[in-house]
Specification:
The chain is mainly α and 256 residues long. The chain has two domains: 37 residues; 206 residues, MetI-like fold, CATH 1.10.3720.10. 82% of the residues lie in helices and 0% in strands. The protein contains eleven helices and no strands.
Length: 256
């Protein structure tokens, strides 16, 4: 039986409400607990203050800008490389082993080398975020094109399609679901990498940078506000892309 939207919302709120009740109970256990479990009213006051001052908005815009820019650079280049490798066996043999070897290195394992190359500024942050988006889009784009059913390609050849027509009308539509799956993963990785690099490298503005400074100052209320903003922004980005994905793949049958 299908549930109404109101019922679904209420069910989704059960766990968050229970967590908030537990958190508030912990904050009332004494000064030591109140340092780690800041009372919710203090978090609310900090949220209102940072909204009024514009600090939270500036941090959110800076983080969002880095994440989207890195996603575009890494995602587009990754999709292009993945598709090209899948369509060109010589390129796959030359580039494929290097790609699969490099992607085994943890992303933050590249930090010392990137720091030596480009320093600790915005260029380093953007490079790491782009790499986070690059890896999954290469892999999924490659698999998407390679797993296209052979009969579709043979049918295109029977109709005399050129290479460009075969790609545009056969390979790309058939591979698009996996390509978009790679972009979905890239979005999550890029967002995590953005927050992480801001915390490690610091920045003039950004949610991760604010978390790092607040940790040094033992301002748990500011940390929680930044975490809340990061969670809401990340959720919104994923929701918007999920809607875009459904629109682009509207020709697919819907499975209930």
């Amino acid at each position: 039986m299908a549930r109404s939207p109101a019922v679904r919302v209420l069910l989704a709120l059960i766990v968050p409400v229970l967590i908030l009740i537990w958190w508030q109970a912990q904050s009332a256990q004494g000064d030591a607990r109140a340092l780690a479990f800041v009372p919710l009213q203090d978090v609310g006051a900090t949220l209102a203050a940072r909204l009024a001052s514009g600090f939270l908005l500036n941090d959110a815009i800076a983080t969002l800008s880095r994440a989207v820019t890195g996603l575009l650079l890494g995602g587009l280049s990754g999709a292009a490389l993945g598709v090209t490798m899948a369509m060109s066996r010589p390129l796959d043999r030359v580039v494929g082993p290097l790609y699969h070897a490099v992607r085994q290195v943890p992303l933050f394992g590249w930090l010392p080398l990137i720091g030596l190359w480009v320093g600790n500024g915005d260029a380093a942050k953007l490079l790491i975020v782009s790499l986070a988006a690059f890896y999954p889009t290469v892999l999924n784009s490659y698999e998407g094109v390679r797993t296209v059913e052979r009969r579709y390609v043979e049918l295109a050849d029977m109709f005399g399609f050129s290479a460009a027509q075969r790609f545009a009308h056969v390979l790309l539509p058939a591979a698009l679901p996996l390509i978009l799956t790679g972009v979905t993963q890239a979005l999550a990785f890029a967002w995590i990498a953005t927050i992480g690099t801001e915390m490690l490298f610091g920045a003039h503005a950004g949610l991760g940078a604010t978390m790092g400074v607040a940790q040094a100052q033992q301002r748990m209320d500011i940390i929680l506000v930044a975490i809340l903003a990061a969670a809401l922004l990340g959720f919104t980005l994923n929701h918007l892309f999920a809607r875009l994905r459904r629109h682009l793949l509207r020709w697919q049958p819907v499975i209930n």
